[in-house]
Amino acid sequence: MTTVRVRFQPGLRPKIEKHAMHDQQTHGSWAGEKTGAGNNLNLSEVMNLISGYDSLKNNVYSAEDTVNNRKNNTNKTPPPIAPNHPLDEGQDYDTAYREYNKKWLEWAIETQALVLSEKGKTYLDGSPAGVKKYVDDVIKQDWFIERFGNGSSLPKLQVKTANTNAAGRHILRMTKNQSNGGIVKQENIISIDRQATKDESTILHEISHYATVISQTSRYSAHGFEFARNHVYVVGKAVSPERAARLKKAYIAKGIPIND
Questions:
Q1: pTM of this prediction?
Q2: pLDDT tens per residue across span 159-188
Q3: How many domains does the chain contain in total?
Q4: Which residue range forms the structural domain that includes residue 45?
Q5: 107 lies in a domain?
Q6: Which of 54, 160, 191, 216 is deepest in the core (most CB within 10 A)?
Q7: Could you tell me the CA-to-CA distances from 132 to 70, 138, 147 in Å, in that order?
Q8: Separation between Cα atoms, residue 46 and residue 41, nearest integer Å
Q9: DSSP per position, 89-157
Q10: Residue by residue, what is the 3-state secondary structure of 127-144?
Q11: Contact in structure between 202 and 225 (CB atoms under 8 Å)
């Protein structure tokens, strides 16, 4: 998902720079198809393009669930059992619980694992470093830059992992000074939940949000047809044309108008 956040220091709320736009529900730019230069918009302009109304969000996730078919990828190993408290005399509960936490995270990562490509096998080892290497590799591929651009007009993309309430997020965030409206801090982040560090489908979903953000030039919804079309393209290149074809078919079946 794409999360847009604007933070203001205490005081008067400054106006955000506006960018000319028009609604684009059934047509739109094909993500830098002609020039490959991206949209060259700054963070304020990009944030103003994203509609707060995201009517196709549930359809997008439902379609992707049918393609991912996680029932066939579920870890069959039972979860570790937490230590009793208090432990027998002479044992350290805190040490035992830290070990349990480590084993539980390893189990959770394997339970959600969905590695789809050779690139995924190379990088996605369950570590935060593996996620970062995977994202960096994908967004620096020639096919990605030619289609979407390199995002150089936005703050550099950060790739983070943390314990969150969502498997993945693409976050655009800025802090502005309340007195003069100057930008204090800008952030452009792909955030992946620690348990999803071997879930290639989730990571590609967030990469596709990033691709849409750096290439879209007209108003759009976070999970609109622009995102769906871009995600099909990214999956086709990063995983396989066959998987992309299944994904496109699933999107169309859920009423997402990308069959153009």
A1: 0.82
A2: 999 988 899 999 999 888 888 877 778 999
A3: 1
A4: 2-8+28-73+115-253
A5: no
A6: 216
A7: 23, 10, 21
A8: 6
A9: TT--HHHHHHHHHHHHHHHHHHHH-B--SHHHHHH-SSSHHHHHHHHHHHHTSHHHHHHH---TTSPPP
A10: CHHHHHHHHHHHHCCHHH
A11: no
Of 116, 121, 107, the closest CA to residue 76 belongs to 107
pLDDT tens digits, 182-219: 777 899 999 999 999 999 999 999 999 999 999 999 99
Give CA–CA dist 49/37, Å, rounded: 18
Whether 84 maps to a domain, the answer reads no
191 belongs to a structural domain: yes
The residue that leads in pLDDT, 181 or 239, is 239
> Quick count: other Cβ atoms within 10 Å of Cβ 213?
29
Determine the length of the chain.
Answer: 260
Structure tokens at 31: 């993500």
Read off the DSSP letter of residue 71: G
